[in-house]
Amino acid sequence: MNHPRTWPSLALTALTATLMVVLATLLGEREVIFPEITAIAVGMLCAPAPVWNTSRPRILLTITACAFAGIGIVRFVPGPLLLRIGVGFALAICCIALSHTDFMPAVSACILPVVLGTRTLWYVASVVLMTTIILLLQWLLAGRKPLAYIPVQTDWKLRGKQLLAVLIVCGIPAMTGKIYFIVPPLIVAFLEMSKAGSRVNRPRAVALTILAAVVGAASRIGLTQTAGLPLWASCAVSVLLILLVMRQLGMWFPPAGAIATLPSLLLPTRELWLFPVEVAVGISTFALVAGVMFGKKGET
Fold it and tell me: Could you tell me the pTM of the whole model?
């Protein structure tokens, strides 16, 4: 269930997420926050083996390309939010296909700026810096050995069905501006639940993701809004708590880490109480669609 590096890995993951919030606070740039950094750390540092079939250089190149693509969509692609989400998803999948990996967090790197309207290159700089830190830590923890990587061939039929499902689920929230029902980590969670041969236990993944939203929102409400502690403190506590739950369950589901991080700075104060409900509805809908369209264990 666990492995010898568990405790150092938990600490390093929490420290990485906290560093990101500290940088955002010091710079006065909320765009520095990229919640999927916690997800990447969970998949690369905490899990007994890397969650994705990829290499370190491919991770960095893919996520950088997707971050630039997301900023580009905000700046240069007009039209309704749903259209731009579809464009972002398609571009991200193309980047992943070109990298011959299954590194799904790159989808969030592309769609997050689209959903939030982020235009600044601070976002790209943060994605590159924080991903590099995680990869260096993983390289050191792995004894400086390369990742076991086998090139992945993209199943375009599967990706087409996933795009259709994402557009269906995101339709009403995108048109009504209720973006927290469809925050990008939930889209990544859907991709993990619907990929070919998926072994993700969907009910447990749903419960874990909802718990992450509760922990993240409650930490900020209790520690920052009520006790007056800085945002980095609530981030550190929420990330550590959800990591401990994952460790206890023996289930390292990276999107839950991203959801626990998101309330630290990206969430307006007025949304904190509703966030767990919005995430619960969003992840449950995505899980239901994954079950209906892709079967119990994903499409084979």
Answer: 0.95
Those residues whose C-beta lies under 8 Å from the C-beta of residue 58, and which sit 6 or more positions away, are 99, 100, 101, 103, 149
**Could you tell me the maximum CA-CA distance found in the chain, to the nearest angstrom?**
51
Q: Is the pLDDT score of 247 beyond 90? A: yes
Alpha-carbon 45 to chain mean position: 15
From the list 156, 63, 149, 161, the residue with the least C-alpha distance to 113 is 63
The pLDDT tens digits for 120-158 are 999 999 999 999 999 999 999 988 899 999 999 999 999
- C-beta of residue 231 within 8 angstroms of C-beta of residue 267: no
Report the pLDDT value the prediction gives residue 6, as an integer from 0 to 100. 78
Q: At what angle do helices 6-27 and 231-249 cross, to 10 degrees?
A: 160
- Report in angstroms the alpha-carbon separations of 81 from 78, 108, 118, 142, 176: 9, 15, 13, 41, 10
Residues in the chain: 300
